[in-house]
Amino acid sequence: MSVAFAGNSTPGSSREAGPLRVMVVDDSVVIRGLISRWIGAEHDMEVAASLRTGLEAVNQIERINPDVAVLDIEMPELDGISALPQLLAKKRDLVIIMASTLTRRNAEISFKALSLGAADYIPKPESTREASAADIFHHDLIQKIRHLGARLRRKAAVASPPLAPASPAPATRGPVVARPAASAAAPAVHAPSSSSPLSTRPFSTQAPRVLLIGSSTGGPQALMALVAELGPVIDRVPVLITQHMPPTFTTILAEHLARTSRKPAAEAVDGEPVKPGRIYLAPGGKHMRVVRSGADVAIALDDGPAVNFCKPAVDPLFTSAIDIWHGAILSVILTGMGSDGMRGGKDIVAAGGSVIAQDEASSVVWGMPGAAANAGICAAILPLNQIGARVNRLFAGDRS
C-alpha cells in the first residue's frame, strides 16, 4: 500500500528548513520497506511517499512535493527512465537518484538518466540478504540523499536570499567610497559561499609527466566534459582516472570516455604497461595503483579492503604514483562526496607535484575537492569549464 504525506510548500520549490522529504519509488515491497526504514531512522530526512510505480509518482508529485526521489529503473506501468523527464517537468528542482541492479542494460540506462537530468545513481544489491552489500547500499544511499539534498537547499537559499532588515537613513548623504580592488600581486584565493577564503600555493616548477584524476558523485558528467578538452595532453602522457563506481558501470564509463575524448580509454588491466596516449580507468570493485615493471610502469589492481569507504579509491592511485614519477605529477580532484584524494594529494604536493580542485559552484557535491581546498594543498581551485584549459597550459610549459 502506498503511503504519502503532503508537503507544506509550493510545488516546484524546495523547503529551506526541516527534514529532507524523500519519495521512494520501487515496485519491490521489500526494497521500499528497507529504504523507508533507513530514511526514517535519520534525523534530517523523512519519507514523503512510498510508491510502487513511476506512474504513481508522476500523478502524485505535485501533492507530495518531495525534495529527493529514489527512483527504480524497472517498474510496471511506467519505468524509471520514462518517469524521469515527466517528474522533472512537474518539479524542475527535484533531486532524482536512480536505483538499479548491476546489469549492463541498467548501467547504460543510468548513464542515459544522468544526461536527462538525474542527479546521481546507486546500484542495488542483488540480494538484501548479503549483509556487506546491504551495508554499502545503506551507507551510500543515505549519504547521497543527504549531500544532494543539502546542495539543493543551498542553491535555493542563494536564489532567494532573506530580506535584510531595514536600516535607518543617514542624516546626511556623503560620497560613495568604493572598496579597494584586490592587488594584482596578491595570491590567488577561492571563497566558497560557506567558509572564509581559501589560499592556493604555486604550481610545481617540474614538468608533469602524468595526469591523475579522482572523482565521485557527479563525476561521470564532469569527466566527460574534461576529457573532451584534453586531446593534446592525452597524446603526450598517460591519464589515469579513479571514479567511485561499481563494476559494469565502469565498463560503460570507459566506453563513454573513449567516444568523448576520441582517444583509447578502457578499464585498466592488471599488469598492463602504462603508456602515453591512453586513458586508464580503475575498474569497479578494484583499487588501481601503478608499479615498476622492469624499465616500464605497469598497472597493479588489488582486491583489498575499501579505502575512505570506496573501492576503487583515489588515494591508492595518488600515493602509488609518487614512487614512479616523484614530483612530476599533476592531479585533479573533481566533484564527489567525502575526502578521498585529499591525503594522496597532500603526499603528491609534499613530493613536489601539484593539485587542482574543482570549485564549489560547479561541483555536484563539494566534498572531495572541498577537502583538498581546505587542506591548503591546491595550486588552483577552478570551475569545471576552466580546468581543461589550465591543464593544457601546464603540460605546454606554462606554470603560472
Outline of this structure?
The chain is of the alpha/beta class and about 400 residues long.
Structure overview:
- The protein has twelve helices and 17 strands.
- With about 400 residues, the chain is of the alpha/beta class.
- It has two domains: about 140 residues, Rossmann fold (3-Layer(aba) Sandwich), CATH 3.40.50.2300; about 190 residues, Rossmann fold (3-Layer(aba) Sandwich), CATH 3.40.50.
- Helix 2 packs parallel to helix 3 and helix 9 runs parallel beside helix 10.
- The longest helix has 29 residues.
CATH class of the largest domain: Alpha Beta
Give me the number of helical elements. 12
- The 3D shape can be described as globular
Strand order of the largest sheet: 11-12-10-9-15-16-17
Kindly, what is the distance between the CA atoms of the first and last residues, rounded to a whole number of angstroms?
62 Å
In helices, the fraction of residues equals 25-40%
Mean pLDDT: 87
The main sheet comes to:
7 strands, parallel
Q: What is the percentage of strand-forming residues?
A: 15-25%
Order of helices and strands: EEHEHEHEHEHEEEHHEHEEEEHEHEHEH
Tell me the name of the CATH homologous superfamily of the largest domain. Methylesterase CheB, C-terminal domain
Uncertain segments are: 1-14, 163-194
Radius of gyration: 23 Å
* Alpha-beta content class: alpha/beta
CATH topology call of the largest domain: Rossmann fold
> What is the count of distinct domains?
2
Number of extended strands: 17
Instruction: Assign the CATH architecture of the largest domain.
Output: 3-Layer(aba) Sandwich
Keywords: Chemotaxis, Cytoplasm, Hydrolase, Phosphoprotein
Protein name: Protein-glutamate methylesterase/protein-glutamine glutaminase
Enzyme class: hydrolase
Region (Disordered): 159-179
